[in-house]
Amino acid sequence: MSTQEFQNKILEGIPSELPPKKSYEIDINHAPKRKDILNADEKKLALKNALRYFDKKFHAELISEFKEELDTYGRIYMYRFRPDYKIFARSIEDYPHKSKQAAAIMLMLSNNLDYAVAQHPHELITYGGNGAVFQNWAQYLLTMKYLATMTDEQTLALYSGHPAGLFPSHSGAPRVIVTNGMMIPNYSRPDDWEKFNALGVTQYGQMTAGSFMYIGPQGIVHGTTITVLNAGRKISNGETNLAGKLFVTAGLGGMSGAQPKAAVIAGCIGLVAEVNAKAVQTRFEQGWVDEVFTDLDKLAQRVKEAKEKKEVVSIAYQGNIVNLWEKLEEENIHVELGSDQTSLHNPWAGGYYPADISFEESNDLMANQPEKFKELVQETLRRHVNVINKLVAKGMYFFDYGNAFLLEASRAGADILNEKGDFKYPSYVQDIMGPMCFDYGFGPFRWVCTSSLQEDLDKTDQIACEVLKKLMQESPKEIQQQMQDNITWIEGARENKLVVGSKARILYADSDGRIEIALAFNKAIREGIIKAPIVLGRDHHDVSGTDSPYRETSNIYDGSSFTADMAVQNFVGDSFRGATWVSLHNGGGVGWGEVVNGGFGMVIDGSVECDQRIRSMLFWDVNNGINRRSWARNEGATFAIKRAMEKEPLLKVTLPNLVDENLF
Question: S-S: 606 plus which of 47, 152, 507, 525, CB 3.0-4.6 Å?
């Protein structure tokens, strides 16, 4: 298809004539069938909700088709309307547009649905089993048309994937406002998501799926690398050398697919279990996994050999993580570091699979015998925890990777609580990322080159590295290690072949780093060194974007970890300080109803006006979270916010007064 034909298809939106019905492609990794949760009246309502996108003359033909989808898959995806063109991050100029900002959003949105990036592309799910960009293909088509025709004097409102429409605004306002899963609080149980998603009235946007900021597994490789490095330092008296040490975990899907690559970059042996053969094959073909095993005896021998030779290698076990853990314990193989990154925020709909039955049998039980499936999952979680407890007793350091493993294991009645009723094992944020990174303002800053040119990405790597080296010379000792880790990361970025999909990069930076890197990029665009605008963003898994008591805010101990003021303030504050689009989500990472997170995207185009937006928005985006962490009496955050106030006279925050414990 030519560029002109592609543009014409975008501008058409929902077609005026029905396209032919598409066959179901079995070689694509599809979402599991969702359970049958709607009653007869609710199914009728779901069909009405779906048909309202189409002219009445098509309803008679579409109603039976949509009913079949609902009965077969538990959702109405509108497969017929899936576009014939390939969806990927094209050059920004390839998208029809009246607003350059809107064109950049189309690029980012497309990247989330690229076959190389998305977990279930035909169901519009990017990662995590249910992290959706849209609920159905009509929403995609209509949104792309709105973006292609809007101006910088309009804002698009997206309600959980539904494009409510273009509203008059102004050039300084966000081009898109995204909300996903914003429920009345008493309606955020897992079955509420199943019901209202099946009705077509809400969706689970995860963190970066429904806000168009996902950049493939690279987006979490860096954070995972930093986590593994610092976990290694915890067990090695601060030494960084992880040669010969074994890191065992699970999950090779969307976000979790980063783990084997991160283990290799960190310099250890990465052993990752995954039940989905297609996910294993994808990571192997991408070079993110070095070796694949299905035989546990051969795998155990290979691991012993790798430990003896102190190899740096990533190994996938195609099978259930519990069987792998039990084999390692049986063979008395010492595991230094252990975790888990299955999608346990979504345990009953494909996020975690029971041991000792096949992947296919599990999917059938999930849809047709959901209570039996739940029983088997919880039985497996109890086994999972039992074997981890045995390995920890032998010296393994285990941490929860923020995937709700501890939470769901406790709900399953596993031996996961200590005598005080707290979890036996820490969240990685409590032990590692919180005190070492988030409290000091370091989080996942990312950018995407909208030219889609490798040469532009290479230039940004060089610029970012130069900025970090300069800043490191002026940095206090408290953040020297964080600065050096990121310099090492960016210097090896291209060699490690991190790009999947858009020409994107990520590193952990504080407020100073993000602002200075962004200003340098903007200057390079202005001078023609970089060919096209750049999209700035971050994972919501950051300093201030997310309120999540079992992950991002698990090292908040003043009782406020169950409040969501910070994420909402972040979302609103970004919107009037210069963000190009902002998003607010219920759910993400640890589960529906367990977290609220806010995110942004900012398009920089080389203009002087962009310099001001960079300084204003990025400063707020980071320091909002540092301030909240400081008020919770986190020592590192108090250091960081005092340093920020010294640099910015207009910043004045309320500092905590510490209480002498002896008074109690």
Answer: 525
Interior angle at CA 202, CA 341 and CA 98, nearest 5: 100
Could you tell me which of 501, 622, 439 has the C-alpha nearest to residue 219?
501
pTM of the model: 0.88
Mark 288-322 as b/e (b = at least 16 C-beta within 10 Å). Answer: bbbebbeebeebbebbeebbeeebbbbbbbbbbbb
Max Cα–Cα distance, the chain, nearest Å:
77
| Composition of the chain by helix, strand, coil, percent to 5 | 45, 15, 40
Residue 304: is its pLDDT beyond 70? yes
**Is 358 in a helix, a strand, or coil?**
coil
Exposure pattern of 500-539 as b/e (b: 16+ CB <10 Å)? Answer: bbbbbbbbbbbbbbbbbbbbbbbbbbbeebbbbbbbbbbb
For 402-503, strand residue ranges (E) read 443-449
What is the chain's mean pLDDT, rounded? 94
Tell me the DSSP string of 271-333.
EEEES-HHHHHHHHHTTS-SEEE--HHHHHHHHHHHHHHT--EEEEEES-HHHHHHHHHHTT-
CA 660/CA 185 separation, integer angstroms: 37
pLDDT in tens, 194-229: 999 999 999 999 989 999 999 987 777 888 888 898
Angle at alpha carbon of residue 602, lines to 598 and 605, rounded to 5°: 180
Q: Please give the structure tokens belonging to residue 603.
A: 């398009």
The residue whose two tokens read 């429920």 is 183
pLDDT tens for each residue of 169-192: 999 999 999 999 999 999 999 899
Measured distance CA(599)–CA(544) in Å, rounded: 9
The Cα 429–Cα 595 span in angstroms is 15
Residue 603 CA, distance from chain mean position: 20
Identity of the residue numbered 595: V
Pairing verdict, β 397-398 and 125-127 = unpaired
Quickly tell me which residue has 């903007």 as its tokens: 522
Q: How confident is the model at residue 255 (pLDDT cuts 50, 70, 90)?
A: low
pLDDT at residue number 550: 86
User: Residue 270 class from Cβ within 10 Å (0-12 exposed, 13-18 middle, 19+ buried)?
Assistant: buried
Rounded distance between C-alpha atoms, residue 561 and residue 553, angstroms: 6
Cβ contacts of 70 within 8 Å, gap of 6 or more: 38, 43, 46, 47, 76, 198
Give 469-511 pLDDT, tens digit per residue.
999 999 999 999 889 988 888 888 888 777 888 999 999 999 9
How many alpha carbons fall within 13 Å on the CB side of residue 328?
Answer: 33
Report which residue type is found at 597: N
**For range 610-616, the mean pLDDT:** 97
Closest CA to 355 of 386, 331, 339, 378: 378
CA distance 280 to 321: 13
Residue 254: predicted pLDDT: 65
Q: What is the DSSP string of 213-276?
A: --BTBHHHHHHHHHHHHHHHHHHTTT----TT-EEEEE--SSGGGGHHHHHHHHTSEEEEEES-
What is the rounded distance in angstroms from the CA atom of residue 8 to the CA atom of residue 144?
A: 11
Query: Considering only CA atoms, which of 500, 448, 598 is closest in space to residue 119?
Result: 500
Q: Which residues contact 647 (CB under 8 A, 6 or more apart)?
A: 512
